[in-house]
Specification:
Chain B: Keywords: ATP-binding, Hydrolase, Nucleotide-binding. Chain B: One of its GO terms (molecular function) is hydrolase activity. Chain B: Residues 25-306 form the Carboxyltransferase domain. The complex is a heterodimer of chains A (205) and B (341). A 7-stranded mixed sheet of chain A has the order 5-13-6-7-10-9-12. Chain A has a 4-stranded antiparallel sheet with strand order 1-2-4-3, covered by helices on one side. Chain A is built from 4 helices and 13 strands. Chain A has 2 domains: 3-73, 2-Layer Sandwich (Gyrase A, domain 2); 82-204, Cyclophilin, CATH 2.40.100. By secondary structure, chain A is of the alpha+beta class. In chain A, a hairpin with a 2-residue loop joins strand 9 (154-158) and strand 10. Chain B has 2 domains: 3-166, no CATH class; 182-291, Cyclophilin-like (Cyclophilin). Helix content of chain B is 18%, strand content 30%. Chain B contains 5 helices and 23 strands. In chain B, the strands form 5 sheets. An 8-stranded mixed sheet of chain B has the order 21-14-15-18-17-20-13-22. Chain B has a 6-stranded antiparallel sheet with strand order 7-6-9-4-1-11, with no helix packed on it. At the A-B interface, strand 3 and strand 4 of A face strand 16, strand 19, strand 20 and helix 4 of B.
């Protein structure tokens, strides 16, 4: 198990060979915390553990996490709900994506809307869900220069993932289209609409 | 009700506390003040707990009118303050508390030489926390006042109907944030860069680009080369993470940073130096130096001791209107007691 410092107030637990990050985060959540623990943030292949360096020492938090790794190892992720999200496929990058992939734009739409995605991770922005996995024909690295403003509702893809941007924000993904859906509402509990494990289908409109 | 009414909002003035924790796993950024030292000192000046929410000013402060029975407030950071009372205007000092009356208008001018300054009010603002915090994250409209920066006409109700009788406190000296290189711990993905890139990063000047904001500082300087592309499987982030997208120009993440990101991170600024970064204005030239975890922990303890020492050294003001009022009250009380048997 590889553990890397992320400054003096956090460390990252590598899960490439270990438990599903969301499962480890859930196990740590149920364990009720340890002195100085501030936040547990699952990534795609890792879990970030944030602590208060004035309230605890890193070794103490690390030992608490390592003790619970075994518990998370064998557990599979729970099966989630199925969401069908209508999309207008008129994004500014649709043609460029088609060209880079050697496909027609119509074929890009067909492949994207023909995939049942799974929520692998929430993050980046409130309610932003990382959806896996994109068909191999559509995979492109993210843009070298991130856009300063991606409009809310943009349906996007990069690498092997897709997503809907819940908010106007900077972003480096390729924009395929638009959806109207409230992915986050602070009045809701939990505020994020999608949860890790949920399945998502995009429906062209 | 006693309140501050926003006459003009300034540029991106927001309510902030020390951050919103516990929701990063749902994608909710921590937010909070860019300069937590300034918030803690401003709160100490008005007798608040260190994490009470205040107003963070960026570039140009607001004009605020006091409505009700008066308020004690303090501004920490380099801002010109002008008080207008009964038609007369005078300058007030920052880095100290002031007692304001009903009808007073306080104009907070340009923030000069730092990116932000903080205003705290005795007792704090009577606002409704969102997801456990009064921090404003405007990109997702999270926080009090609709999750947005102040707007003209907005009213900030205060918890205290009137200020206490305590003397006004001031900082003994402006807080010393330290100088020298910004200290970082390499990683968590330093191995995703060439050896030359890390050496270059630690030996070059980087200038803060002009689009710096609460989310982060884009840096301009020698490009940093990745070993195998800029992309990584997205992982959790903290303020201070230095991510490098494909163009090789580093970005230091600040309070409003996204919760996870997919660019390799060459290094992470240590927690003791985050307040310095939060103060960095566009054009500032930064140097970075690598330290160990033990050195980072020692640096953080040193910062905490410096803040505690600054709080311990707060002193009462030695003059001005408030003392004159106190003096005359003493005289009156002396006369009364002289007539008693």
């Amino acid at each position: 198990m590889r553990i890397s410092d992320v400054g003096d107030a956090a460390f990252s637990v590598d899960c490439t060979a270990g438990p599903v990050p969301a499962v480890l985060a859930a196990v740590l959540g149920r364990a009720g915390g340890v002195r100085g623990l501030v936040e547990v943030v699952p990534g795609l292949d890792s879990v970030l553990i944030r602590f208060d360096p004035l309230a605890t020492c890193r070794a103490e938090v690390e030992a608490w996490v390592v003790e619970r790794l075994g518990q998370a190892e064998g557990l599979a992720e729970a099966e989630g709900r199925l969401w069908r999200i209508p999309v207008t496929y008129d994004g500014p990058d649709l043609d460029a994506v088609a060209m880079a992939c050697g496909l027609t734009p119509a074929r890009v739409v067909e492949l994207h809307s023909g995939t049942v995605f799974r929520v692998r991770l929430l993050g980046f922005q409130p309610g932003f869900a990382y959806l896996g996995t994109l068909p191999p024909e559509l995979r492109l690295p993210r843009r070298a220069e991130p856009r300063l403003k991606v409009p809310a509702g943009s349906v996007a893809m990069a690498d092997d993932m897709s997503a809907v941007y819940p908010w106007d924000s900077p972003g480096g993904w390729h924009l395929l289209g638009r959806a109207d859906i409230a992915l986050f509402d602070a009045e809701r509990d939990p505020p994020a609409l999608l949860a890790a494990g949920d399945r998502v289908e995009f429906v062209p409109r | 009700m006693t309140a501050l009414r926003v006459v003009s909002p300034g540029l991106n003035t927001t309510v902030q506390d020390l951050g919103r924790f516990g929701y990063q796993a749902q994608g909710v950024p921590v937010a909070g003040v860019l300069d937590p030292v300034a918030l803690r000192l401003a709160n100490a000046l008005v007798g608040n707990a260190p994490g009470e929410a205040g107003l963070e000013l960026c570039a140009l402060g607001p004009r605020l009118a006091v409505v009700g029975e008066g308020a004690r407030l303090a501004v920490v950071g380099p801002v010109r303050l002008t008080l207008t009372r009964d038609g007369e205007s005078c300058r007030l000092d920052h880095d100290r508390a002031h007692l304001l009356r009903d009808g007073d208008v306080l104009a907070l001018g340009a923030v000069e030489g730092a990116a932000t300054a903080v205003l705290a009010v005795e007792g704090g603002f009577d606002l409704e926390p969102v997801l456990g915090s009064l921090s404003t994250y405007s990109r997702a409209a999270l926080g009090p006042l609709g999750g947005k920066a102040l707007s003209a006409g907005a009213v900030l109700p205060l918890r205290r109907p009137h200020p206490s009788d305590e003397p006004c406190l001031l900082l003994a000296a402006p807080f010393d944030y330290g100088a020298g290189p910004i200290r970082v711990m390499p990683g968590p993905q330093a191995d995703r860069f060439t050896d030359e890139a890390l050496a270059l990063f630690l030996s070059s000047d980087y200038a803060v680009a002009k689009d710096a904001d609460r989310m982060g500082l884009r840096l301009e300087g020698p490009g940093l080369e990745h070993r195998d592309g800029a992309g990584i499987p997205s992982d959790g982030l903290v303020a201070g993470c230095i991510q490098v997208p494909g163009n090789g120009q580093p970005i230091v993440l600040l309070a409003d940073h996204q919760t996870v990101g997919g660019y390799a991170k060459i290094a992470t600024v240590i927690s003791a130096d985050l307040p310095r970064l939060g103060r960095a204005v566009p054009g500032t030239r930064l140097r970075f130096s690598a330290v160990s975890l033990a050195e980072a922990q020692a640096a953080r303890r040193t910062l905490e001791q410096a803040v505690a020492a600054a709080v311990a050294a707060l002193r009462s003001d030695g003059g001005g209107l408030d003392l004159a009022a106190l003096y005359s009250a003493n005289l009156v009380s002396g006369m009364v007691s002289g007539e008693e048997p």
